[in-house]
Amino acid sequence: MDPAIQNLVDISQTPAALNAKADVVLERARWASQVFQRYDREKTLAIAMATAEAAQAKAGEYGEWAVRETGFGVAEHKTLKNQLSSVPLVEHYSDTDFVNPRIDEATGNLEIPKPAGVIFALVPSTNPIATVYFKVLSALMTRNAIVISPHPAAREVSIDAVRTLAAAAEAAGGPEATIQVIEEISLPLIDEFMKSAKTDVILATGGTPMVRAAYSSSNPAIGVGPGNAPVLVDESADLRSAAAHIVDSKCFDNSVLCTNESVLITLADIAKPLLRELTGAGAHICSQEETARLRSYLFHDRGFNVEALGRDASWIAEQAGFKVARKTRILVAPIDLIGVGEELSREKLCPVLGFYAARNMKQAITQARALLRFAGAGHSAAIHSNDDQTIMDFAASVEVYRIVVNAPCSQGAAGFSTNLPPTFTIGTGFFGRSSVGENIGPHHLINWTRVAWHKDQPRPAGALGGAQLKHAGPLPKAPADGVPGQSRQSFVPAPDRERNELREQIRAIIAEELRSVLKD
Q: Binning pLDDT at 50, 70 and 90, where does residue 491 land?
């Protein structure tokens, strides 16, 4: 191509070219999703488990790689998250049938599963591989195709992980192109995927702007908002146990999970003994001057200082201008105010914990509510207490959809140290301006068609007889002249042929755009 023309327009970034790039990937995914819906439950679970085993085998490698590439987090903790979101995730849902029809015993209605189809999934830099594993396996268990959009900060490790899972799924008999990844990441290209009519649902985990973009794309979206979890400790709590759980949670993967505790709220009467227990668990209690230095370092005019994201406590202290012991696990910063005017009551994805002492329980709960109104509404909260009424009052008052009791919030709200569904995508519901308030799981990637009989003539027990949902199974290998029993015209076009046709369309569109540019 004439260099002069090339300089006039970046062909690869024109709207037409970006649309065509997205269209190729999404059309392949659509084809894969339609084939996948022919599979029965046994074959579907076998594919999901084989893929999970491949994921688990590389959990450690990807944990170390993610820390090396992004520069934050703890490899050991990322490995654990990767492991938990592989085989254990599939085992957790192994008794849930996402494939076969079911009867609602209360209504007598017949319910038939309908997978979403093509899922476009955004992945954050903070938990890249655990999120890739979680979203891919959730898609496989529900017979959906998925396209992964990695975060640029974790691009290389995410691409490699998706390729590993895609190869494992295909080797186990899954349709080609069920799992794909965007390798050339750009915001305009992501926008094309999000607004394409061929995207059936967007599964967005990331920053607020990206989640809002997903919701404004005109496609169905499941988005999650930021966390900012308050943790309340009352006088009935086992203070040593509470301190251990809080420190363990806050330092886990250097606090990059959005479920981590942001501000500890307690009562003035027990503040000193609780601070002693926090110190014993590995916390450094900041002086007034150190707290001021932390505030200044962590927050600036543009918001949170991303240099501190996922860094360890001693590194953050040094950057802020003071020294702590190398073995320090978290920094505790006493504050006198929550909300506007106190930046340390914002979300802090690093091992820095605000500490606020209230006069009484009413004020403590009021301040927890204020914290969430400031940031993190709908997400998570924790309480350490042995008083059932206090737990009830707290849970009823704070505007979140997860309350973790006497357990670490990071792992508890995500379902790994509680009986909540395990997830790395947290729904923030109406409070957080999200469509879902639950822990997101494979059940959110499937809808059910309900077949209802007239009330006056309800379906008699066993009226369906031996009727079953037919699963034709994987497509047979196509001979040279096409699939047996089908003409080439009736068969879904092969991905390679689709790409060739789209390339011709792209060339024609670009040629027309260039002619327009040269006329101008």
A: very low
Total of domains in the chain = 3
Residues with catalytic roles: 258
Pairing of strands 110-115, 102-103: antiparallel
Residue 19 domain-assigned (yes or no): no
Helices (H), ranges, 234-287: 239-251, 271-280
Residue 150 shares a structural domain with residue 215: yes
| 506 lies in some domain | yes
Q: Same structural domain for residues 61 and 199?
A: yes
511 has a pLDDT exceeding 60: no
Query: Residue 217: its pLDDT value, please?
Result: 75
Gyration radius (Cα) of the chain, Å: 26
CB atoms within 10 A of CB 449: 11
Average pLDDT of the chain is 88
Question: Are 430 and 227 spatial neighbours (Cβ–Cβ below 8 Å)?
Answer: no
Structural domain boundaries, residue 485: 476-520
Rounded CA separation 12/21 (Å): 9
CA distances from 401 to 303, 365, 374, 377 (A): 26, 16, 16, 9
Q: What is the pLDDT of residue 513?
A: 47
Report percent pLDDT > 90 for the chain.
70
Which of these three, 402, 432, 449, is where a domain ends?
449
Beta strands, E only, 257-317:
261-267, 283-285, 299-300, 303-304
Start-to-end C-alpha separation, the chain: 19
DSSP 203: E
Spatial distance between the Cα atoms of 426 and 439, rounded to a whole number of angstroms: 5
Q: Are residues 167 and 213 in the same domain?
A: yes
Helices 75-84, 41-57: inter-axial angle, 10-degree rounding:
170
- The CA distances from residue 217 to 123, 131, 181, 202, in Å, are 17, 22, 20, 9
- Number of neighbours of residue 231 by Cβ within 10 angstroms: 26
The whole-angstrom separation of Cα 383 and Cα 140 is 36
Quick check: 34 pLDDT over 60? yes
For residues 199 and 265, membership in a common domain is answered with no
